[in-house]
Each structure stands twice: as structure tokens, then as C-alpha cells.
Amino acid sequence: MKKQIGLILLSLSVVSACSKNTTKSSSTSEAVATPEAAKAFWDSYEKESEVLDVKVNLAQWAAMTNITDETEKVASASNEEYMAFNSRTFKEAMKYKDVKGDAALERALGFLTSAPYVPSPDNDAKRKELAEIMTKMEGMYGKGEYCTGDGDKKSCRDLGELSEVLKSSRNYDELLEAWNGWRTVSPQMKPLYSRFVELANEGAKEMGLEDTGAGWRSWYDMSTEDFSQTVDRLYSEVEPLYKDLHCYAREQLSQKYPGKMKADGAIPAHLLGNMWAQGWENIYDIMQPYASKTNIDIDGELVKQGYDAIKMVKAGESFFTSLGMKSLPDSFWTNSMFVQPEDRDVVCHASAWDVTNDDDVRIKMCIKQNEEDLITIHHELGHIYYYLYYNNLPNVFQGGAHDGFHEAIGDAIALSMTNDYYNKIGLLDRVPEQNEKELINAQMRRALEKIAFLPFGRMIDQWRWDVFSGKVGPDDYNGHWWKLRKQFQGVESPNVRPAEAFDPGAKYHIPGNTPYVRYFLSFILQFQMHKALCDAAGFEGPLNECSIHGSKEAGEKMMALLSMGKSKPWQDALEAMTGTRDMSAGALLEYFAPLRTFLAEQNKGKQCGW
Ligand code: X8Z
Ligand code: ZN
């Protein structure tokens, strides 16, 4: 794969390189596989991919910020061109696969022969079909809405509106309707998705991969076996903490919704404050451990203080600049989409785009005035700053140390948005008293965002890997989804799913084809980064109280990581930042140690698990 376009999410990655109309040595099939020829081939890739990236990004941006048949047609055609470029250049690159040269050349050749996001069959008609399916699925997600009533009485709600219900309503049936409503957008995607799997796998096999999922697992500077083991190890490190949180949540929820769940069973998926039950921060009111004299209401303050979308993004930028990082370029402010337009359909799911190498970076978001979106803004700016700091590297090295790093930067920064920080920037007029109870309250807020996510981050690609490998066919897409939801998250669908349901399609990353295990890795890594940055900032004290805001030393560490892109194995990047070469949940567990003790005490005598 490699270059991560768009959000990284553009999904059609570049395998590689070279082309028809570039240098002679790189494009003739009789090329002798010398280091010089390989280098020339790489150079030609750089030139051609740069031009094509911009074209694809612009077409994709135009479609995702204005979904019409016309924009989709253009986006799809450019994606098709991109996939053709990938196929062609992959073949060419394979000739140089074993060439020995300097470390950079060998690493570049590794990327140029590695698996793409979407391995396309080397057949024009099939490639066209694949590109069209992908554009169509993402467009269907973006345009999705749930309508009720007829004629004059007809009223429709989009994902933002339905999510608002999940967030704020505490009425079981109202929640259920919004939850089911959003899941009416995805059954239509199912035939497209199964054809997508077939076509991508055909392309994967042509490239010598077992299947598309095996290709995705090969991106991590380690064997696919070691990668799978690492994911399992990391998950086993955090699973006990998740189970403790789940146990406590189930208890609180059964008090709130009496008779709606079994004391030892899974939690109905619509009660957790989020459309996918992936983050539970919106039910803090139900989960708050202790009464407090301080009412933390960041949402309310944002509204009260007139934080519009721009002001919220500026607040995000100012965190990065407080670390000594550069300001965002003017073009960022003029080219980004910050709010949902009223006159057209867009894909609201937040993303960060690296349109050109000369700093045309953008975000696309439908910002709402709430804390959740303020945090997401920091997440997106993490991507943007990665782009800005690695953009002078060759194209093949422009990417996160691995994709989990790319996802972790902004989140690592947002871990520094402590109560003290909110107080410092005026979004909290009084910090809670310094005592054990307030500490546990603060930890719970964070755990609902971070710990609740872990099994979700772990399961999404498990589903996809099982689908790509053929272990699970279309008839069992939905059944397998719910089996994994229960196995990992301990949540279940609140009702029997209709036969035509395709619930995976109701989560952006499935129709958008964005790999997901990266977020699981990110949620582990961001705590390792936070710890290292707090050390650099000279912070002494418990990790959960540290904010690196204003620390130039932490900024130096961060910029050093960003500037490396993926020019070195991720283990080197991690070591440079944290002193260790292994991903580990140690920092996360250290961070949440006080909460863990609290949960163990609360859950005593209860039957936890499901
Ligand atoms: O998709 C995202 C980002 C864009 S890369 C907003 N996230 C995952 C999700 O929303 O499902 C961030 C955390 C998990
Ligand atoms: Zn992201």
C-alpha cells in the first residue's frame, strides 16, 4: 500500500510506482535489476504518484463534500486510474524486489511491492466496477437518512441528528428507534459489499497475497503471525480493565433501565450514548461515581462562550503551537470544510486530507459545539501536523510510522486536556477539589472514552479479516458481526435483526473501506506517547494529571517523530520517542490504576462478564 491519501482514508492506496511515460530504465520490461535501475524506477514513481495523488485527492474531496452523480463519476474514474497505476507499478516494482542498495532504497522497494488497501484485479472492466462500488457505498453512507411519515408529514433525520438522540435521550424506546433508524441505510449496501470483497480478493490473489485482509496485516514491519500475536497480546493486557468497566456500566444501566437487561448478560447496544457503542462518554451522567460540587459542562461553555467551528479549530491549533509547532497554513482555513452545508449531501465523518505536498492540507468535518467534537478536532489536527512535518520526505515515506501512530498523535495531545487545562483556557471556571473522589470522577470520564473503545477497536477488523478470508460469507455477515460484538464488547442488538440487515455497513469505515485495527493500536500507543511527552516536559506526578500544554521539550519530541514519517521501521520511531521498541499497555494501565482499584471495589460480589 502506502502512501496514505486523503485521510489515509481515501482507501485506494498506492502500491507503488513507476509508469508508462517516465524514465526509460524504469519502464522497460527488460530493465536490469541493478540498484541504479531500481533508484531510477523509484524516482519515476515519486514524480508520477505525486501528480496522480493530487488528481485523486481533489476528485475525492469534490465528491465527499458534494455527493452527486457527477462528482461520484469523476471520483470513481480517478480512483480507477489510480488502481490501474497501482497494478502496473506493482508488477514493475517486483522486478526490483530483491535489489540490494542503501537502507532507504531497500525500504522504498519494500513499500513499492507491498499490499495496497484495495488490490484491484488487473482487468479494466473489473477495476471500473470496483471503483464504482466503492464510491457508491461511501456516498450511500454520506447521504443516509431515516425517514418516517408520508407526504406532508414526512420527516427525515441524518446520522448527526440520530446520534444526538443516542447521546441525549434517556428514553429506552426513543433510543431504540434512532438506533434502528440509522440501520435502515445499510441493507442496500450488502450486495455491493460482497461484490467488493470478491473483486478485491481477486486482485489480492493476483498479487500473490492470500486475501485482502492478509495484505492489510502485512503493513507493520513484522510478519503477519507476529502482528496477529501482538494484537492478541495487547488485547489480553487491557481486557480485564474493560471487563471491570463493563460490569460497573451494566449495574448502573440496569438501575436506569430496570428490567431491560440480564444481570449477567450483554448490554443492549443502544444504551451507551453512541450509535455504535464505541465510546461511552455521553452517558457519564449515568456512570458518574461520586456527586461533585463542580459541574463540568464543556458542551455548555462552548455554546455560552460562542465557540463556533472556527474558534474550536483555533483552540486546537493553539495547543499544537504551544508546543512550538508551526501555525496552520492559510490554505487550511480557506480550503477546509468545518460545518455541514445545508444545500448538499456530504460525508460528515471527520477526516484530514493531504492534498498536495506544498501544504494544501484540509479537514472535513461537520463540527458541533460540544466537547466530543473539540477532541475530534485535536485528533484531526494530529493527522494534519503529521502531514506538515513529513511532507518533505519522498512520497513512499510519507505516512505514519505505522497507521496506528497516525491515529494516535492528536489523541495523545488531547490526553493533556485535563480539568486544569480547561480551566486555563477558560472552559471550566473552577477545577474540582483535589481529592480521591474527584480523581475517580475524572478517571471515569476518560475511561468511558478510552477503555470502552478497546474491544470495539479490536473487533471491527476481526470481522473484516474473517470476511476477506472467506471464513464468513454474505449469509453470515450480520450474524458474525453480532457474534463478535458480543464476544469482545459484551453488547448485543436490542432486537432480533431483520433478515436483510447489514449492520456493519452502518459504521463508516466499512463502506468507506478504512482499516480499523489502527485505532486499537492508537488507543494503546497514545498512552505510551503521553507518558514519554510528560517525561520530556519534566512532569512529575500521576500520569492522569499531566498536561504537556506549553512544553517546548515535549514539542521537540513530537516533531522528531512526525518528521520521520515512515522512513524507518516503527520500532525505531517508538524507541526514539519512548525508549522502548514494543507496543505495550503498561502506560495505559498505569494511567487508569486508581480507577481500576475503584472498579474492583465496586464490583465485589457481582457476577461480572457475560
Ligand atoms: O474515524 C475516526 C476519526 C477519523 S480517522 C474521526 N476515528 C474512529 C471512529 O470514529 O470510529 C477516531 C477514533 C475511532
Ligand atoms: Zn484519524
Describe this structure in words.
Helix content is 55%, strand content 3%. By secondary structure, the chain is mainly alpha-helical. Among the domains are: 19-141 and 189-218, no CATH class; 220-289 and 432-526 and 565-610, no CATH class. The strands form three sheets. The chain has a two-stranded antiparallel ribbon. A hairpin with a 6-residue loop joins β1 and β2 (155-158). α15 (371-390) crosses α22 and α19 (453-468) runs antiparallel to α21 (517-536). The longest helix is centred in the middle third of the chain and has 33 residues, at 224-256. The protein is globular, with a radius of gyration of 24 Å. Residues 1-29 have low confidence and may be disordered. The site of L-captopril (X8Z) has 7 residues, from α15.
